[in-house]
């Protein structure tokens, strides 16, 4: 990585819920020595604060004010990982002004040197459309539900596969069908269907793409 550059190298990763984009983003950031931001946590922070305050999730003014207070450096994965918080996040994520506020903060983060990995739903399309590497990570709804089910079981949570699958399908619908910044692959994104790939295989496939782009662009 060239440390004299003023614009960092950005890897943009998008994909639906439980597709493995966060796992991949963290591994890639560690491997390439880049900063990582899970942008889903910023939407979760708004949802969490609204739930905690007992606010109606459709109260746009309250959601907008809450989004202004979000500090990316203070996002706590453990606090924000609850299922109900994810649901709340996807509801407030349809509010255009909330998105504008969070996207500005995410863009500022993306400029960190020597570079960044951001994962979310609109990184390649809206937050960092100029990113030299865009990955769209996906897997079938059934595979994603199975992974989430195993994750919950491993944490000692009583899990119900049917409920998880139904929630994943509902979340996909909400994220893909919203008017503002719907989840979709950027035109120049590399598609990574990990339905039949291990975490290791997905990581190797992503590295092969990134190494090629870096070599082509002499990065
Ligand atoms: N290729 C894979 N094979 C098997 N399990 C995987 C794979 N990728 C990720 N997982 C597991 O699937 C679960 C979901 O992965 P992860 O949290 O990275 O998804 P995500 O897309 O970031 O989800 P969300 O958008 O809901 O935050 C985790 O338990 C993770 O360990
Ligand atoms: N760039 C993003 C990231 C997330 N969202 C919304 O937040 C919800 C929670 O995200 P997780 O990745 O933590 O599951 C998600 O369902 C989206 O509605 C978003 O809109 N844009």
What order do the helices and strands come in, and which of them pair?
Blueprint (H helix, E strand, L loop, with lengths): L8 E6 L6 H12 L2 E4 L1 H13 L7 H9 L8 H4 L2 H10 L3 H15 L4 E6 L2 H5 L5 E6 L2 H14 L6 H17 L12 E4 L5 H18 L3
Parallel strand pairs: 1-3, 1-4, 2-3, 4-5
Bound molecules: adenosine-5'-triphosphate (ATP) and ligand L45E5XJ5.
The site of adenosine-5'-triphosphate has 17 residues, from helix 1, helix 8 and helix 10.
The helix content is 40-55%
Could you tell me which ligands this complex binds, including any ions or cofactors?
Answer: adenosine-5'-triphosphate, the ligand Nc1ccn([C@@H]2O[C@H](COP(=O)(O)O)[C@@H](O)[C@H]2O)c(=O)n1
User: In DSSP terms, counting alpha (H) and pi (I) runs of 4 or more, how many helices?
Assistant: 10
DSSP strand content: 5-15%
State mean pLDDT (0 to 100 scale). 95
Structural class: alpha/beta
The unreliable regions are none
- Rg, Cα atoms, Å: 17 Å
Could you characterize what this model shows?
The structure is a single chain. The chain is an alpha/beta fold and 219 residues long. The chain has one domain: Rossmann fold (3-Layer(aba) Sandwich). Helices cover 53% and strands 12% of the residues. It contains ten helices and five strands; from the N terminus they run E-H-E-H-H-H-H-H-E-H-E-H-H-E-H. It has helices spanning 21-32, 40-52, 60-68, 77-80, 83-92, 96-110, 123-127, 141-154, 161-177, 199-216, and strands at 9-14, 35-38, 115-120, 133-138, 190-193. It has a five-stranded parallel beta sheet with strand order 2-3-1-4-5, sandwiched between helices. Helix 2 (40-52) crosses helix 5. It starts with 8 loop residues before the first strand and ends with a helix. The relative contact order is 0.21. The structure holds adenosine-5'-triphosphate and ligand L45E5XJ5. GO terms for molecular function: ATP binding; dCMP kinase activity. Residues 11-203 form the Cytidylate kinase domain. It catalyses: dCMP + ATP = dCDP + ADP; CMP + ATP = CDP + ADP.
């Amino acid at each position: 990585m060239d440390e004299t550059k003023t614009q960092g190298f950005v890897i943009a990763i998008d994909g639906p819920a439980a597709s493995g984009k966060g796992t991949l983003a963290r591994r890639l950031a560690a491997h390439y020595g880049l900063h990582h931001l899970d942008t889903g946590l910023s939407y979760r922070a708004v949802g969490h604060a609204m739930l905690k305050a007992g606010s109606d999730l459709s109260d746009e003014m309250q959601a907008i004010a809450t989004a202004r207070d979000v500090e990316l450096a203070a996002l706590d994965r453990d606090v924000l990982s609850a299922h109900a918080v994810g649901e709340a996040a996807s509801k407030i994520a349809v509010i255009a002004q909330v998105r504008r506020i969070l996207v500005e903060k995410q863009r500022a983060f993306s400029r960190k040197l020597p570079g960044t990995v951001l994962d979310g739903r609109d990184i390649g399309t809206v937050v960092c459309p100029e990113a030299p590497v865009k990955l769209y990570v996906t897997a079938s709804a059934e595979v994603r539900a199975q992974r989430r089910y195993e994750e919950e079981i491993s944490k000692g949570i009583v899990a119900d596969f049917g409920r998880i699958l139904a929630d994943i399908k509902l979340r996909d619908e909400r994220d893909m069908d919203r008017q503002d910044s719907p989840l979709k692959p950027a035109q120049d994104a590399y598609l990574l269907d990990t339905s039949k790939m291990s975490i290791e295989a997905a990581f190797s496939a992503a590295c092969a793409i990134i190494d090629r782009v870096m070599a082509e662009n002499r990065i």
